[in-house]
TrEMBL record:
Keywords for the protein's UniProt record, in alphabetical order: Cytoplasm, Isomerase, Porphyrin biosynthesis, Pyridoxal phosphate
Enzyme class label: isomerase
Protein known as: Glutamate-1-semialdehyde 2,1-aminomutase
GO molecular-function term, one example from the UniProt record: transaminase activity
Species this protein is from: Poseidonibacter ostreae
Entry annotated with the keyword Translocase: no
Length: 426
């Protein structure tokens, strides 16, 4: 029943490395062949074998209104008819920037780019340009895109500076990246003792790339205080959580405020869009007003802007969406937990707005090391069996899951019923 996907995958592997354009899509951590998708409709996706899936991945976050939302579709088609790209300013960019600026009282200006990776990379350059400092501090388990200086892993012993986590990244390019344990205030303090050249802390305030692992309020407060005391800027990477965790992202759920926020995913509604935003004072350093260089041929692409604009306006017109999404997220994870409990399977669950996470382990993980102790074999089995039953979960325990507005309680109950059959066999 995956015959056409297997064929498509084999064919893809001939001409595309690993058959995919982003590694996670290859299903390496759960095994098997990834379904090749033909089309989406509302809460569902259909693969090239005609299998139907309830989609909890949502293109890894962007599709908060599900597939083929009529309003977004209409806006995009209308814009396409006027031309795909001009390399000149359009009013759509201003309109989308206004929507974002209006949401945060400490954001005055936004610059659009084409991906989350680009947004973070540019935000870090800006932070370095503004502070005149070189080092950056990131946390183990947080993902900020695939740019060189962020592909770091813990070095040997107690060194706080990271070493490259991928061949092709010279150690010279990661030697300015300090690596700290998430939710570990002592470790954080030590980093600031080890370097007086820290330009910024970059953090996912609600981490979604090691499963769903929120930072504690005290930890974020410590980040803020250490930045202030050491002349560094605090960057919240909200590429995933922006307009996902709440209408004002993770920031809206937290007391601590950042200096720079990066966006992606939901603000493009499925089109390639990223953005970084800050106060006027900081953004004025960016070219052409200032001296920190940043550019992009397709940045602020009108078609992508119209998708994002329609999506954000819909969200703002229906702020209660987030409560409804969170209720559904809770219905799902509580249901899964009940099923797991009745089968004596330890399961940890969490939600933030429309985001959810679950771990097959005894205690709730607070950092990547603890996530690593979860039962990955069990997760792989769960994933595979649920996929066969038509439920498309992220293919790794290191990923968060997402609820879209078109997923119904009936969908969720069907998923829990399927999980109940699957976990009985564990
Ligand atoms: C997805 C993601 C990125 C990278 O965005 P791309 O569009 O894949 O380049 C960066 N940071 C976070 C927190 C993400 O979730």
């Amino acid at each position: 029943m995956f015959d056409n996907s297997v064929k498509a995958y084999t064919q893809a592997c001939e001409v595309i490395p690993g058959g995919v354009d982003s590694p996670v899509r290859a299903f390496k951590s759960v095994g098997g062949t990834p379904p090749f998708i033909e089309r989406g409709e509302g809460a569902y996706m259909y693969d090239v074998d005609g299998n139907k899936y309830l989609d909890f991945v949502q293109s890894w976050g962007p599709l908060i209104f599900g597939h083929c939302d009529k309003d977004i579709e209409e806006a995009v088609i209308k814009t396409v008819k006027n031309g795909l790209s001009f390399g000149a300013p359009t009013e759509l960019e201003t309109l989308l920037a206004e929507e974002i600026v209006e949401m945060y009282d400490y954001i005055d200006k936004v610059r659009f780019v084409s991906s989350g990776t680009e947004a973070v990379m540019s935000a870090i350059r800006l932070a370095r340009g503004v502070t005149g400092k070189n080092d950056i501090l990131k946390f183990e388990g947080c993902y900020h895109g695939h740019s060189d200086s962020l592909l770091v892993q813990a070095g040997s012993g107690l060194a706080t500076f990271g070493t490259p986590s991928s061949p092709g990244v010279p150690a010279d390019l990661t030697k300015h990246t300090l690596l700290c344990e998430y939710n570990n205030i002592e470790n954080l303090k030590k980093c600031f003792e080890d370097s007086d050249d820290i330009s910024c802390i970059i953090i996912e305030p609600i981490a979604g790339n090691m499963g769903l692992v929120p930072a504690s309020p005290e930890f974020l407060k410590a980040c803020r205080e250490l930045c202030d005391a050491n002349g560094a800027l605090l960057i919240f990477d909200e590429v995933m959580t922006g307009f996902r965790a709440s209408l004002t992202g993770a920031s809206g759920l937290l007391e601590t405020k950042a200096d720079i926020i990066t966006f992606g995913k939901v603000i493009g509604a499925g089109m390639p869009v990223g953005a970084f935003a800050s106060s006027k004072k900081i953004m004025d350093h960016l070219s052409p007003d200032g001296t920190v260089y940043q550019a992009g041929t397709l940045s602020g692409n009108p078609v992508a802007m119209s998708a994002g604009l329609t999506s954000l306006r819909k969200l703002k017109a229906n702020p209660s969406i987030y409560n409804e999404l969170n209720e559904k997220a809770l219905r799902l994870v509580n249901g899964l937990k009940e099923v797991a409990n009745s089968n004596n399977i330890p399961l940890q669950i969490n939600t933030r707005g429309s985001m959810f996470g679950f771990f097959f382990c005894e205690n709730e993980p607070t950092n990547i090391k603890e996530v690593g102790k979860c039962d990955f074999e069990r997760f792989a089995k769960f994933h595979h069996e649920m996929l066969k039953k038509g439920f498309y979960f992220a293919c790794s325990q290191y990923e968060a899951g997402f609820i879209s507005t078109v997923i119904t309680n009936e969908d969720i109950d069907a998923c829990i019923a399927a999980a109940s059959e699957v976990m009985k066999e564990f």
